[in-house]
Amino acid sequence: MDREWVVEESVAIKAEPAQVYAAISDLRRMREWSEETFALWVRGRSVETGTRFVGFNRIGWRVWFTNCQVSAAVPGEVFAFRVATFGMPVALWGYRIEGIGDGSTRLTEYWEDLRRDNRAAGVVSLLGKVFTGVAAEKRASVNRAGMRATLDRFKAALESA
């Protein structure tokens, strides 16, 4: 089987696009939704394109951090950030927000593996395996399951509010 470089999952949420964007772009709440993130340190008060933050993650007993920078922040449309480790690109994570009528929104979470076509790809893939316990070739399937859980949590939280 070929390695997957891009993964995305979607969910329909009974909430307006502005509400969905406000929640997903509140980085300090990411630990409520994410399967792996347990803490975040955000530089500054506002979150906009260019905002930097550090994500603290875990799978089982393994704990690691990533340096991130918001790459897109368009209210009601898209929120995305790039992930790096030791200055080397790892991934692009994002959320597309689309109003689908009747006060509902389709939220799509996507991930793109950036560990390719550069000199650091092998090093970053090795570091990923050491720190997370997940080989680069298996990261897409792990992320797909995590996305499903994240989107389900997000939907439940917004629809119960």
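(ticket continues) Second input and output from the same batch:
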Amino acid sequence: MECNNTVIYEQRDRIAILTLNRPEKLNAINYAMNDCLLMLLEKIEADASLGAVILTGAGDRAFSAGGDIHEFTRSIRRGADEAVRDFCRRGQAMTARLEAFPKPIIAAVNGIAYGGGCEITEAAHLAVASERAIFAKPEINIGIPPTFGGTQRLPRLAGRKRALELLLTGDSFSPGRAKELGLVNSVVPHDALLPAAIELANRILRHSPLAASRILSAVTRGINLPIDEGLLVEREQFARMCATKDVLEGLDAWIERRPPRYGGQ
């Protein structure tokens, strides 16, 4: 499955691998790529044979260098209303979709992750970085704030002061620093990046896909709520699982000391 070749789709068993595919432009996110990614996520959500997603970049240089500056400059020149509609809302819709996706999404950051590429990493549920990866929030260098959610997600991940240092200076930072900040889960040798992401996905896929979806929903919805409201979300997700065959299969398998056989119902 391909979408104007801006994002390449591959399926490996129960894992969908999406590759941002504009390597000659450092996988800069143009409007077509943004829309293609959203379309592919719709297809993946509807496909019951798929349980996890890995998102990476084509080539050896970049995960994504961010938004396509030449393209969104044309929108800005046509006025704020058009720029907000074409660029900001589009990018925010894409990262919000990643964040709220009901199947685990793992970013496999293979190189430069600047601007929108860093924001995709922030929005993904999990992330593994190559030792060659490099991150930055460089939007201030062209006179704009981040537009795909970076002013909101990075402070929630890293803390206000640490995030503001990166947002206000535009300085790049290493994959080790990204791990310290909570932006990525692990840093691995470059050649081990995709195998590490697949291994992480398979560790998740051992379990009930419905339970994974309920956990993702509880965390995504509850993380910005007061704790009492978040606990209500948690109880709601638990109640939804109680009505499924998966929870009974999980309990029976534990009692009978055998591997569970989940049907996702």
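Agent notes: Residues 246 and 262 are 6 Å apart (CA to CA). The mean pLDDT is 95. Closing as not reproducible unless the customer responds.
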